[in-house]
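Teaching note: in complex prediction, the entire set of molecules is handled at once rather than each chain in isolation. The prompt given to students was simply: 'Predict the structure of this complex.' The entities are:
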Amino acid sequence: MSAPTTDLSMQLARQEGWNRPPVIEPGGEGELLELAMGPHHPSTHGVFRMDVVLDGERVIKLKPVFGYLHRNHEKIAENTSYLATMPYTDRLDYFCSLTNNWAYALAVEKLSGQGVPERAEYLRVILAELTRIQNHASTIGFLLQEMGASGTPLMYAFREREKILDLFESLTGSRMMCNYMRFGGCRVDASPAWLDAARKVVSGLPEFVDEFETFLRSNEILMARAQGMGVLRPELAVNAGITGPMLRASGVNYDIRKVDHYGIYDRFKFRVPLGDHWDIYDRYMVRMLEMRESIGILEQALKEIPGGPVMDPKAKIRGFRPKPGEVYGRIEGPKGELGFYLISDGSPNPYRYRVRPPSLINLTVLEDMCVGHNVADVVLIFGSVDIVLGEVDR
Amino acid sequence: MKTIEEIKAAIEAAVPGAKVEVVINPGPSGQHSLLLGTATAAAVAVFLRDDPTLALDFLSNVTGVDWPDKEITEKVKVPRQVVKTVDGAEQTAEEIVEEARKRVEPGYLEAVYHLYSMAKKHGPVIVRIRTENRTDKTKLPSFTPIWRSAELQEREVFDLYGIVFEGHPDLRRILMWDGFKDHPMRRDYVEPDDFEYEPTAHDEVLARAQAQKAATGVGITPQESGR
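The expected output is the structure of the full assembly:
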């Protein structure tokens, strides 16, 4: 199967209701069973509920229920200063706090026209790619966990994640709630010893990915349960705003690092892996390949990182009031397009603060992917989306 | 990528009767937006998606903004009849007097859409539509049939801002619970002072409380507890 051209297939597919979930008539003789999967279910990665209608074991309807972790993050941010929101962004997608920091810092820098020093840009790239690697490794580990490979693959992933979190801790002071980026740079500089430690961790990563892949690539359970399961057509993926590895597994070549060239990503050589069967196995494989590309970026960045300040000396920390205006800034997070929409009215607080959460929007097509499959496969399809509830419910 | 003025001209040429206005963004980001008339917004959206040069097939971000009523105090010069006594006789004369007048500029709710093109890899094109007011005329056309990605996000705007999207296939509350009465992201929202207390009991709890009150006259329903 070749990679489809989205615009052409979209022209062909455009009929009334083509982007709605399929409707299946129950076929069996028995009664339908309504089942609430979650909110307290180990496969839902937090507090998330799916109301499923079952015909035997077959899913004929699925409605996600959100809001169990809702704390109105946006309202909190509108009632506090720009800088004070930075630690709150850690709590959105708590697996990837550094990319959340970067997306928010990027949006505010665009809003106020603030520049970033060279060394800070390199540090941001290094930390974002490390975040991407540990996120993808954990996602694959959790996916295998949900297939019944209890613990072992997840522990392999967590062993590597641990090394990366140790790096985060020694640089930012915290393993997960890093609160590291600032408007116009980064909070503290990385010492030469830290950079050496990072180089050491990165030099061990290809071996880990090789090992992980040897164990998993032709694993019978993975192939039997993931191939041909949860297919997401590219034209629907584009229309439903799916982003990140899920979109690329559906064969659409769209990586914001390549499209927007934000930060300094145009200096690095990396490829964008694409899927061509659009199923769970492709989502797993795309994440695997993205880890390899991230390692490539890390090696280049750690080699080229220049000296200098990590904070623009002209950057205003206290009494920060951007001029009136609005901005939408976005980055390629590990889960997809993470965007921040800000409106400034010239006061110290944003007039409007909005997070575009990739986790929530990637769940738009959950029903489309699950309908017709067995209820046990819903867990896998859901796991292959890769969500964090802190970001879904905000 | 066309400039915002060119996109406006293209829309006006393609969609007859379309109302489009450019909203200038004064900030350094330079992301200007297009304000669409409510009646023709859906037709314009279809054009933006299907036009081969724009090809905005990816609706990234949907959000609401609340602009409350503004009270504006202006100084107006008004002519006024003034009675004066000149040489013992009363005369009326006209004088220009400065007067402070208060005027309320009605507020509105606004839905903002950020569009990108995955086929052409350009964007963003920012589109806004506004409701007539904040109280009873809060209906806007839904973009969900055109871009599916609006489905959950428009539900969120409905939940937190109270904009009713006509044509949305499944418009329910998404983050707050079903019996909740208010819209928490509005600027004038007042939060309850007692978080232990459930402000809007619903379904069975509410029905049972009311039945008990009606039957025995004892107990308070949640609505009567002084809230």
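Point out the following to students. The two ends of chain B are 54 Å apart (CA to CA). The mean pLDDT of chain B is 82.
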